[in-house]
Amino acid sequence: MKAGWRRGLNRFASDRASALGLALLVLLLVAAIFAPILAPFPGDVADFHTANRLRPPDAVNWLGTDRMGSDLFSRILFGARITITIAVVAVGSAVLVGVPIGLVAGYYGGWPSNLLMRVSDIFLAVPQIVLAIAIAQTLGPSIENVILALSITYWPFWARLVFAETRSLKNEVFIESAIALGASPLRVMTLHVLPNIASAIIVRTSIGMGATILTAAALGFLGLGAPPPTPEWGRMIAESREFLPEAWWYATVPGIAIFMVVMGFNLLGDGLRDFLDPRIRRGAGVK
Predict the structure, then answer these.
(1) What gap in Å lies between CA 266 and CA 157, rounded to an integer?
(2) pTM for this entry
(3) What one-character-per-residue DSSP string does 93-126 give?
(4) Residue 276 falls within a domain, yes or no?
């Protein structure tokens, strides 16, 4: 068993795409944690410096400056903190809501299950970005409201996933054996069903983090995210539009940051799927 997992880890480490995704996310985490140390101008990310407006990249401002004259590299580093906060809290909230709903609905069945799934279908019937925009517009622009809008619109994805996985495991021999031995429904769901579907939840969460960051950036671009002068990547791109194409670096820098982070989560999700899915691992000879 340990040898199988060791081979799986070696296979994951040898996958260049997965390693790249992990490296990008480690880079994001380091940037967010050590932003006050790494930023060349940590105290100027929200200040106006008229003399430095829209300076191209040079030896002092490595990635140029924005319309306020603030250093873009410093703002990108501090924006990483906002990005991580939105992704972790929004996805974490969606998981905490969607997983129990899907677990209960898939295990018990009947009209409560149908009711819960019909509610999730109502949310899924509307495009997620459209529903998030409507909620954020109603609540007003702020990071907290973006997180709330994303959490409300994301939980059905995990509920549906867990519902389907639970239904497929419900009639397995080991589940029936646990019930025959007198295990309570709560014990069966938490100790037998949930560990066996954890891999699917982890993979969906990793990919969902990338989608959350992209949607949050879209909300920021539309002016529904953090209010200025908060260094939020989507808003930075929106503010750069009137200065294109002359100040090309203004939109390019936050755009590349968003692209790299979303790609990192997607690549890591693909690698985790190959590593955690027992069917793929068996096909690759990892037992």
Answers:
(1) 16
(2) 0.86
(3) HHHHHHHHHHHHHHHH-HHHHHHHHHHHHHHHHS
(4) yes
Q: What is the mean pLDDT of residues 101-115?
A: 87
Q: How confident is the model at residue 262 (pLDDT cuts 50, 70, 90)?
A: very high
Euclidean distance between CA atoms 22 and 60, whole angstroms: 30
Q: Is there a domain that residue 133 lies in?
A: yes
139 part of a folded domain = yes
Q: Report how far residue 191's alpha carbon sits from residue 168's, in angstroms, rounded to the nearest whole number.
A: 16
The lowest-confidence range among 130-139, 150-159, 233-242, 276-285 is 276-285
The separation between CA 126 and the C-alpha centre of its own chain, rounded to angstroms, equals 20
Domain harbouring 251, CATH code: 1.10.3720.10
Cα angle 135-141-144, degrees, rounded to a multiple of 5: 80
What SS3 state is found at 71?
strand
In a domain, 45, yes or no: no
Kindly state the DSSP code that residue 88 receives in the 8-state scheme. H
| Cα torsion angle, 59, 63, 66, 72, sign | negative
Let me know: does 24 contact 264? Beta carbons within 8 Å.
yes
Number of domains in the chain: 1
Residue 29: count of CB within 10 angstroms of its CB: 12
More confident of the two residues 282 and 169: 169
pLDDT surpasses 90 at 254: yes
What pLDDT is recorded for position 80? 93
Range of the domain at 212: 20-37+62-280
Where would I find the H helices in the chain?
2-14, 16-33, 35-38, 72-108, 110-125, 128-139, 143-169, 173-180, 185-188, 194-221, 233-240, 248-276, 278-283
